[in-house]
Amino acid sequence: MRTRRQAYGQHFLVDQKVIQGILAEVSQMLVKYPADGICEIGPGKEALTTGLLQLGQDFYTVEKDPKFATKTAPCLLGDFVQLEPWMRHHQALMVVSNLPYSSATAIAVKLTGARARIVSMVLMFQKEVADRMLAEPSTPHRGSLSLFMQNVWEIRHVIHVSPHAFAPPPRVQSSVLAFVPRKAPIIASLHFERILRQAFSSRRKMLRGLLPDLGTVDGTKRAEALGWDEWQELCAAYEKRMQKERLCD
C-alpha cells in the first residue's frame, strides 16, 4: 500500500547547508526586489518555513496534504494547481518552494500566469526541468518550456542540490532557480505559445515541415536552434497570414 507521503511524491529537505543557502538567496532577493508578502508552496516539514517567518514579511503557506498544514503561519489547504484564489491581498508577492517533482512544471506555469503580482521567486526543481528552463539555443535541453519561461522571466541558477539533501533521497538531482518577471515579454505576440507548440510538436522535423509560414527563417532549422529574433520573425509571418485570411473572409 502506498503511504500518504509516497502518494504526494514528497522528499523532505534536511540538509542545513542547502536550507541556509536558499534562505540567504531569499533574503538577498527581498533587498533587491521588495515584496509585501511571501508565499511558500508545500512547506512539508517546515525546513524553510521557520527561516522564512523570521524575515519579517507577511507570510503564508499553501499545502495540499492536511498533515503538513503549518501551525506557525496561515495556511491555505488545497492543490495549488487547482486552488483559486491563492494570492490573498498581495500586490508584490515573493514565492518560495521546494516544488514536488510531479507537479513542478504545472505550478510554474500557473505562477507565470500570475506574474503581474509576483516580484520574485526562488524555486527548487528536478535538475532536468531546471536545465530545460535555463537552456540556450542549440543545446539538448532547449524546448518549448525554455522559451515559454524565458520569454517572461529572467531566470538564474542558484544552487545544485544532491539527493542526499533529502529524506528520503530521490533518485534525481535537483536545482534551485531564481526568477524575476521581465518588464515586458521578449515576444509579446498573442500567437507565440501556439507557434511554440507547433514548432516543437516533432523535434526531429525541420521547421518547414511544421509551420506554414516562416518569413525569412531558415526552414531547414529545427525549433531548438532558433534565437529570439527568429522566433519574432515566425510570429510576424504567422500574423501576416492571419491578417490575409481575415481580409479574404
Descriptive report:
The chain has 249 residues and is an alpha/beta fold. It folds into two domains: 4-181, 3-Layer(aba) Sandwich (Rossmann fold); 192-248, Helicase, Ruva Protein, domain 3, CATH 1.10.8. The chain has helices spanning 4-8, 16-32, 49-53, 104-113, 127-134, 144-150, 192-199, 228-248; strands at 12-13, 37-41, 59-63, 75-77, 93-98, 118-126, 153-161, 166-167, 174-181. Helix 3 (49-53) links the parallel strand 2 (37-41) and strand 3 (59-63). The chain is elongated, with a radius of gyration of 20 Å.
Secondary-structure blueprint:
Elements: H1 4-8, E1 12-13, H2 16-32, E2 37-41, H3 49-53, E3 59-63, E4 75-77, E5 93-98, H4 104-113, E6 118-126, H5 127-134, H6 144-150, E7 153-161, E8 166-167, E9 174-181, H7 192-199, H8 228-248
Parallel strand pairs: 2-3, 2-5, 3-4, 5-6
Antiparallel strand pairs: 1-8, 6-9, 7-9
